[in-house]
Amino acid sequence: MAEQTIHIFAKSGVTITRANGAPPFQADVIGNALNGDAFSWENPSNLSLTFGTPSTAITFDDADGVLTDDPFSGSNVIDQRLTQPVTVNGVTYTPSAETVRWKNPSPVNVENEYEVTLYDAAGTAYRMVGVSITQGYTTTVVGVMFDGPTPPPGTTLYYKQGISSYSGTGQSVVIPPAVTCFLAGTLIETPTGPRAIEHLNIGDAVITPEGSAPVRWIGHSRVDGREALAPIRIATGALGNSRPLYVSPNHRILLRTAKAELYFGSSDILVAAKFLINGTTIRPQPMRYAAYMHLLLDKHQMVFSEGIATESLFTGANAMQALDTAAQAELQAIFPKLALTQQRLRHRSLTRTEAQVLLPLRNGRDTLRWTESRNSHRRAA
């Protein structure tokens, strides 16, 4: 199974009022919707829901890339088991190795509990997903996410009586992959030397292991860098990098090692930065705000950041959902005919469990570096 992370709006952080500004009759509309369409129980009032930032990360194992309702077979949990502790709405949920629901300690799993259609002021529809955590046989809706574009922070959406729809059984949502980002200030190798990513322009060439490729789009986002999106700091030399490298947790590094050939059939494999954390030379670096930059090429490719091979923005199937609405609109406007969702990963991407097979790394000698790539091209020439 792969490990997945979703970022939700904790229900304590979603402000709900009736359309006239009065509080709803229910104290916990989002939680009560576990038992039916609690939004419609406020009839005849429409509801206003205002969202901040989806800052709570929930990490779980996943067999199929889809978050479903009731991932059970009889009394067994067969998918979506929690793999990392999470505190949400003041409650801490801790993973359990158990899979049988009636045993102690009970298994803990994540579910798509319900889906409801909301609308913005212009009438655009959003599909909101109620996310629950189940401990044994006790299920609690802890927050919401969206199937498709996530509304920008501060957006107010509306539940319209008689128009909005609700589904509470058998629904599923494709899990949006995380966007891979470099922290602003990261040096990217170009034919004329290293340049800070924020100084690159569309059309500029960057070095890849095969030669060079033009930059097609550069995006940026400013996020809360203290929790789930805290950058991973890779200290100088930890992976052969020439300076400290800061990337988002899911940003993948290209490793080249004979050990990978032995276990996975290829010497070149991709490993997410969060799977390489060792608590010393590779660790999270929380900060009040993280200024992240996204670098898009014609295809998923490796670029050299601080001297080592790391991936460009991957826009494979459903990956566009991980970008905010403004970034999606910008990309579609720039590339109306570019099949952004048809990119393919250039190399196999390892799960957390698979990555542990390769650790510890040998002081960066298992990482593809710019100097190594440059020398190989010289020899080929």
Shape field:
globular
What distance separates the N and C termini?
42 Å
- Number of distinct helices: 5
Level of helix content?
A: 10-25%
Tell me the total number of β-strands.
30
User: What is the beta-strand fraction?
Assistant: 35-45%
SS-based class: mainly beta
- Rg over alpha carbons: 22 Å
Average pLDDT rating: 87
Low-confidence stretches: none
* Largest sheet composition: 6 strands, antiparallel
Spatial ordering of strands, largest sheet: 4-1-12-11-10-14
Domain Hedgehog/Intein (Hint): 180-316
Pfam families: Hint_2 (PF13403)
Protein name: Hint domain-containing protein
InterPro entries: Hedgehog/Intein_dom, Hint_dom_sf
Describe this structure as you would to a colleague.
The strands form eleven sheets. Strands 4-1-12-11-10-14 form a six-stranded antiparallel β-sheet. A three-stranded antiparallel β-sheet has the order 2-3-13, with no helix packed on it. With about 375 residues, it is mainly beta. Helix content is about 10%, strand content about 35%. This is Hint domain-containing protein. Pfam families: Hint_2.
Structural descriptors:
single chain, 381 residues, mainly beta, six-stranded antiparallel β-sheet, three-stranded antiparallel β-sheet, 5 helices, 30 strands, 10% helix, 37% strand, globular, Hedgehog/Intein_dom, Hint domain-containing protein
